[in-house]
Amino acid sequence: MMLQSAKLIGAGLATIGLAGVGAGVGIVFGAFVLAYSRNPSLKQQMLPYAILGFALTEAVGLFALMMAFLILFG
User: Fold this and answer.
1) C-alpha–C-alpha distance, residues 10 and 71, integer Å
2) V-ATPase proteolipid subunit C-like domain spans which residues (predicted)?
3) In terms of DSSP H, where are the helices of 1-74?
């Protein structure tokens, strides 16, 4: 009983990182929109950096989710 409740608490704490990922994706694309509105001619140079920032931020979220699943089912 005690081990099961500790697993559930640990998995819940591991998913806190997902809130940061949501904020991070918003910051990445918000900065992209702001940069595009300031200088539209650089869109083709800025878009790969925005996609890279999105991918790296989502990777952190996937790692947090993987850790939660490992705690629950491992």
Assistant:
1) 7
2) 9-71
3) 2-14, 17-38, 43-73
CB 10 within 8 A of CB 70: no
CA angle 61, 63, 69 (to 5 degrees): 105
Question: Which amino acid, one-letter code, is at 28?
Answer: V
74 — pLDDT class (breaks 50, 70, 90)? confident
Q: pLDDT tens for residues 28-57?
A: 999 999 999 999 999 999 999 999 999 999
Joined together, the tokens standing for residue 3 give 């081990």
What integer pLDDT is reported at residue 48 of this predicted model? 96
Return the biggest CA–CA distance within the chain. 61
Pick the CATH number of 2-73 from 1.10.1740.10, 1.20.20.10, 3.30.465.10, 3.90.360.10: 1.20.20.10
